[in-house]
Amino acid sequence: MRKWIAVTAVLLAVAAGAAFLWLGGGADAPRPATFRGEPTTAHYAPIATRAADPDPLTVAEMFPAGPVSAGGTTLTVKGTEALTDCVPAVWGSAEAAVAGCSQALRAHYATPDGRISGQFAVFNLADSTAADRLVAALKDGGFVRPAPGTPAGFDGSRSWAQARALGHYVTVSWVAPVGGTGRVDLTYPQVAMDGLSLVIQRRLVR
Questions:
Q1: Does 46 lie in the same domain as 25?
Q2: Of 87, 119, 122, 199, which one has the fewest beta carbons inside 10 Å?
Q3: pTM of the full predicted structure?
Q4: What is the per-residue pLDDT across 58-109, written as a single tens digit (0 to 9) for each?
């Protein structure tokens, strides 16, 4: 009886550890401490499907060479990546949610002092229904993986992220302190990174 109880306790501990890695992402796949997800709206009806907006996104279109800034905070692009297979850019339930995704573009940014790191990803889905599904998956059970070049000290446990479904696209902006301890106000870094979503607005008037 005691042996059975001991085995059960070990199994429960293993299950709890697995749940932590799944819900929390673990060291290699962190989740943000603060997350906001937004479904698409009627405003994006002209680009509700990829068929209505067939031209693929480009790195140059999404990530201009200049910095992004808000409230006196400036972040400069440090590296970009274009994927035609979207699965490597996500983990957990988000892997199933990117079915039919034709491209994922990613970039990582940093403040001049390197104390804050930001990243931005955009996913090209088949339609707005798929985009809403991905935003929901990013909220529960999955998230994006850190972009290549993200510093090792990127602290997911203190990070903020926002995901938006914009027609058939999903954008994800994510910022975090690098190293250090304590609370860091990420308001302006988050606003600066999320500003890249405005690029999608131009697709409405093509």
A1: no
A2: 87
A3: 0.86
A4: 999 999 888 999 999 999 999 999 999 999 999 999 999 999 999 999 999 9
